[in-house]
Amino acid sequence: MKKTMQFLLVIGMLMACPVMNAQNKALDKALKKEYKAKKKELEKGGWEIFGSSRSIDVTLLKHYEQLNENENLIIITGLSGAFNQKSLGRDKAAVNAQTAYARQASSVISGRFISEAGSASNDVESEFEKFSQLYEGAVMKEIKNEMIESYSVIRQIETTATGKPVYEMQSYYIVDNAAAKQARLKALRECLRETEKLQKYSNLLEKLVSEDITQE
Question: CA distances (Å), 149 to each of 63, 91, 131, 193, in order?
Answer without folding.
Answer: 10, 11, 29, 32
